[in-house]
User: Which sequence fits this backbone?
């Protein structure tokens, strides 16, 4: 066994600092060195000289000794103590504890009771190490420990790779609880307990927790747990039943490992209503520990946080949620009434304020003139006033900015909300849409689209699923994942063969795979003939002829496109005006060319997108300013997150032909391609690391 630390001031100071940061798993050698105003190398040498331990061993032993103290003096479980002393993985904590003391954490109190005359490992903790029951060969343990350290140090990459391949994903579906109350009017309360427990689980980043909207469809569904798990693509399913009788809540819950087809944890609870908040927090923690999820101290604190301690306020809040689910104007107004009653009972109930704001958002949805904008903002601000560290108040404020079309201001609130609830499917879907349409960022668009599929796909009917898969295939191809995009666009068409946009996108995905411009032109002509009123298809068809320098056909379809814009009084694709201008120029209409070139310059004045430099380069090509065009493309080549279509079509543009003899042309175009594929590979790695791709 390792030697005891000599009681000198240096060791005591170092130990005191570790204890001050005991629950911070990130507090390691570098952090300790900084706190002691020493270089890392000086700290390593001094700890080794004073204790015969490495600095990391020194810190780990202090954590384990503190754990033993807590095991003896408190009623906390071993898993809870693991997080208290800075171990993010309860299994690893148990392994370290057993190696250090010779027995697992759960036997600590028994060992103390069985043997009162055991050696002290330090001044703080009594640990059994020499009884007949636990007598060990310390020399063998020391040799084995050294061997383990050597193997892990030199082969850590191999171990990490093997673990990532074999570790089961911690994905969970929380099935709707069965209401066993004789009074069906209590269903809202049982649903509320389930919902709150679900939200607590969603706060754990190490888990993928399916949205309630996806699991609600199984409330009265006869399918088996295995069938449901397969549809939802999860490894664990939670099912339970509950009833509210007077002032008591009775719950029966079990956690099923689908791969083993057996429960791995089950429990029955009987709680007074006043303690229902503790019950919801307990359920989430028990489930997380049962499947050995990595739970950070910050996540534990969020789980333990109580939105209110007023049971009457909570009851009104749950009734409001039930009304909100009715998805009608009458239901939303009833929900607001119940949330207001909750606030009357607890004036600092942040989530109730947030839910009222969300109700006002939905009451104004799809209305040109927003009636409730001021109220939405007022309640969102009140929610943030009382709690800025939960997702609901942040979502409420973000929705205010969505309704005012200030999308860039909404993004920070939404991304912050995901820090507090990484499984918030509604937030993921909103961000995916924002990054797709109004604040273009192809990487984030795809990341959130993939997360949305994993969390929420089963919440939708076949038509909605078709659009979700259409959206995902679009995000994939924009990022260069052409083969994967082909797979999902087929899914989109399978769910809804009449989807108006899926065939159109499929044509471009096919081009991304085969690079056949003539084939794409033929397909777009077929699509256009099916509906000649589609401005989007008309413009794309004109562009295909433009790329092939067939200016006669290009002009014919561009003029049809212009007529459609005039009829519908819209300006759909202002960036395309440079191609229209060049087509008119090539066809001998200089005045028309100048008119559309001016429109393009006006567009550039307003453009704040990542494509501005590329768009400026095209302007300079039109003006025959080749050096300036190269300079603009050089600036664009360092941009992050531009679409694959840039790489696919950049050299198809006839305007670039005048640049091909420039000495910097090939190098500059290559830079743009290299930047795209470099970022593509980085994105691919990130998505694979998050099990999204």
Assistant:
């Amino acid at each position: 066994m390792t030697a005891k630390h000599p009681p000198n001031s240096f060791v005591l100071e170092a130990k005191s600092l570790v204890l001050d940061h005991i629950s911070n798993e990130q507090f390691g050698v570098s952090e300790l060195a900084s706190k002691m105003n020493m270089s890392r190398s000086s700290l390593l040498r001094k700890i080794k000289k004073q204790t015969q331990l490495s600095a990391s061993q020194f810190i780990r032993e202090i954590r384990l000794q503190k754990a033993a103290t807590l095991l003896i003096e408190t009623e906390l479980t071993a898993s809870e103590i693991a997080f208290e002393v800075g171990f993010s993985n309860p299994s690893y904590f148990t392994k370290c504890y057993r190696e250090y003391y010779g027995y697992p954490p759960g036997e600590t109190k028994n060992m103390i009771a069985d043997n009162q005359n055991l050696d002290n490992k330090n001044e703080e903790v009594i640990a059994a190490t020499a009884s007949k029951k636990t007598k060990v060969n310390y020399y063998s343990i020391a040799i084995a420990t050294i061997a383990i350290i050597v193997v892990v140090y030199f082969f850590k990459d191999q171990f990490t790779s093997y673990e990532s391949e074999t570790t089961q994903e911690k994905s969970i579906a929380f099935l709707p609880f069965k209401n066993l109350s004789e009074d069906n009017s209590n269903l809202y309360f049982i649903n509320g307990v389930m919902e709150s427990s679900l939200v607590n689980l969603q706060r754990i980043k190490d888990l993928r927790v399916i949205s309630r909207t996806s699991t609600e469809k199984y409330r009265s569904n006869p399918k088996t747990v295995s069938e449901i798990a397969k549809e939802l693509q999860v490894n664990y399913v939670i099912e339970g039943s509950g009833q509210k009788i007077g002032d008591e809540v009775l719950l029966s819950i079990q956690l099923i490992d689908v791969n083993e087809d057996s429960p791995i944890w089950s429990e029955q609870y009987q709680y007074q209503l006043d303690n229902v908040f503790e019950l919801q927090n307990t359920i989430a923690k028990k489930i997380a520990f049962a499947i050995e999820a990595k739970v950070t101290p910050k996540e534990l604190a969020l789980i333990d946080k109580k939105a209110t301690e007023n049971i009457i306020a909570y009851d009104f809040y749950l009734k409001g949620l039930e009304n909100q689910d009715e998805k009608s104007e009458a239901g939303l107004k009833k929900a607001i009434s119940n949330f207001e009653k909750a606030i009357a009972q607890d004036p600092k109930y942040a989530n109730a304020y947030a839910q009222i704001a969300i109700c006002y958002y939905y009451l104004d949805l799809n209305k040109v003139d927003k009636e409730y904008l001021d109220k939405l903002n007022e309640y969102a601000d009140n929610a943030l006033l009382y709690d800025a560290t939960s997702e609901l108040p942040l979502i409420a404020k973000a929705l205010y900015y969505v309704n005012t079309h200030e999308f860039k201001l909404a993004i920070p609130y939404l991304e912050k909300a995901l820090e507090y609830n990484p499984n918030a499917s509604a937030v993921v879907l909103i961000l995916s849409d924002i990054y797709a349409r109004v604040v273009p960022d192809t990487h984030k668009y795809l990341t959130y689209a993939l997360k949305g599929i994993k969390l929420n796909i089963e919440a939708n009917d076949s038509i909605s699923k078709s659009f979700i898969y259409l959206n995902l295939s679009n995000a994939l191809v924009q990022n260069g994942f052409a083969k994967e995009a082909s797979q999902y666009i087929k899914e989109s068409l399978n769910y809804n063969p009449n989807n108006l946009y899926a065939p159109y996108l499929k044509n471009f995905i096919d081009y991304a795979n085969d690079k056949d411009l003539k084939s794409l032109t033929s397909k777009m002509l077929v699509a256009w003939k099916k509906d000649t009123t589609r401005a989007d298809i008309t413009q794309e068809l004109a562009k295909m002829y433009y790329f092939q320098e067939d200016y006669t056909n290009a002009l014919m379809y561009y003029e049809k496109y212009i007529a459609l814009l005039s009829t519908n009084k819209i300006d759909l694709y202002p960036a395309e005006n440079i191609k229209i201008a060049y087509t008119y120029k090539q066809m001998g209409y200089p005045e028309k060319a100048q008119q559309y070139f001016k429109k393009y310059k006006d567009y550039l004045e307003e453009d704040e997108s990542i494509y501005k430099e590329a768009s400026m380069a095209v302007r300079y090509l039109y003006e025959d300013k080749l050096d300036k065009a190269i300079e603009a493309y050089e600036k664009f080549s360092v941009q992050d997150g531009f679409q694959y279509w840039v790489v696919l079509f950049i050299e198809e543009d006839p305007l670039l032909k005048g640049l091909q003899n420039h000495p910097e042309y090939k190098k500059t175009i290559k830079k743009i391609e290299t930047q795209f594929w470099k970022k593509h590979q980085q994105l691919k790695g990130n998505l694979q690391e998050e099990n999204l791709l």
Summary: The longest helix spans residues 138-166. Confidence is low (pLDDT under 50) at residues 1-7, 114-167. Strands lie at 171-174, 178-179, 208-209, 236-245, 248-257, 262-272. The CA atoms of residues 143 and 149 lie 10 Å apart.
